[in-house]
Design brief:
seven-stranded parallel sheet, Beta_cellobiohydrolase, Beta_cellobiohydrolase_sf, polysaccharide degradation, alpha/beta
Length: 325
């Protein structure tokens, strides 16, 4: 009953946060509101900065990392490293559900992942293997509330793929959206639309529509990147303008602000001098400002993360990101 009452009250408020959602199809708008079903976002007690801070209490950086990063809600990324994906997702979503909090999950296992960047390459071996994996992912969430970002970079990598592989990838993304619609009715799904400096807004709108964005709740911007919120809002609004003009619908969008407090210096792979950014449930046309990348996790063997691998937590980078130097 607590959730039902909260949903009824919050659904009206949610309309204020979703000014761009009027073009959604009826099936998507009829979905329950996972934000209204929960009492805030889930903070992962087992995130990489939380684990590091707990294991290094005597380190002079530990308190700052614990208080300014580990204690904040962030997304959990899932891929081949997660092992049994059904068990991993169910455990994570179950913990959030038990706390009456909303988990944010990122599915990152599409074949040919990070085709252009290369630092995070890999993914499921075949489209068939990916379908099995993403179906288990969606089924593990079941009716519990969640937000899921489907395959960061996947629509920005087209310049590094043949047309046959683009068509194949679009088919996998459309099927992934269908799996969540069928098996996770209280989940909002998002396709990733890159960042303002990667793909032009008209082209990204074409990519989104080809991947089935009409069936998604929305799209994400700036994942693992550093562009300022205002730049992302301008880009997101431009993408929606193109979606509206060419395809007759718009979508709400989320901006990853985990590392954009100082904006971008033009580099994408572990640049120095960056800073954590603000979070909120609205911002310059965005539906929400969330931390989707974990501050302090490496982009790969590059920049201030030289010698590391993608996803590795680097306490010195995290500490400097808190202070912006």
């Amino acid at each position: 009953m607590k959730r039902l009452l909260r949903t009824l009250v919050a659904s009206a408020f949610a309309c204020l946060l979703l000014p761009l959602a009027s073009g959604q199809p009826a099936a998507a708008s009829a979905q329950a509101d996972p934000i209204g079903m929960t009492s805030g976002f889930y903070t992962d007690p087992h995130s990489t900065p939380a684990v590091w801070a707990a294991a290094n209490p005597g380190d002079g950086r530990a308190a700052a990392i614990r208080d300014n990063i580990a204690s904040r809600p962030m997304a959990r990324w899932f891929g081949a490293w997660s092992g049994d994906i059904g068990a991993a997702v169910s455990s994570y979503v179950g913990a959030a559900d038990a706390a009456d909090k909303l988990p944010v999950l990122i599915a990152y296992n599409i074949p040919g992942r990070d085709a252009c960047g290369g630092h995070s390459g890999g993914g499921a071996g075949t489209p068939s293997a990916y379908r099995t994996w993403i179906s288990a992912f969606a089924s593990a969430i079941d009716s519990r509330p969640a937000l899921v970002v489907i395959e960061p970079d996947s629509l920005g990598d087209f310049s590094c793929l043949s047309q046959a592989r683009i068509d194949e990838r679009n088919g996998m993304l459309r099927d992934a959206l269908a799996q969540f619609t069928a098996h996770a009715p209280n989940t909002w799904t998002y396709l990733d639309a890159g960042n303002p400096a990667w793909i032009g807004a008209d082209t990204m709108a074409q990519h989104l529509d080809g991947a089935g964005a009409r069936q998604a709740h929305g799209f994400t911007l700036n994942i693992s990147n550093y562009y300022a919120t205002g730049e992302n809002s301008a880009y997101g609004n431009a993408v929606n303008g193109s979606l509206s003009a060419s395809y007759g619908y718009t979508k709400p969008y989320v901006i990853d602000t985990s590392r954009n407090g100082n904006g971008s210096n033009g580099a994408w792979c572990n640049p120095g001098g960056r800073r954590t950014g603000a979070v909120s449930q609205t911002g310059g046309g965005a539906e929400m400002l969330l931390w989707l990348k974990t501050p302090g996790e490496s982009d790969g063997d590059c920049g201030v993360g030289a010698g590391s691998v993608a996803g590795q937590f680097l306490p010195e980078v995290a500490y400097k990101m808190i202070h912006g130097y």
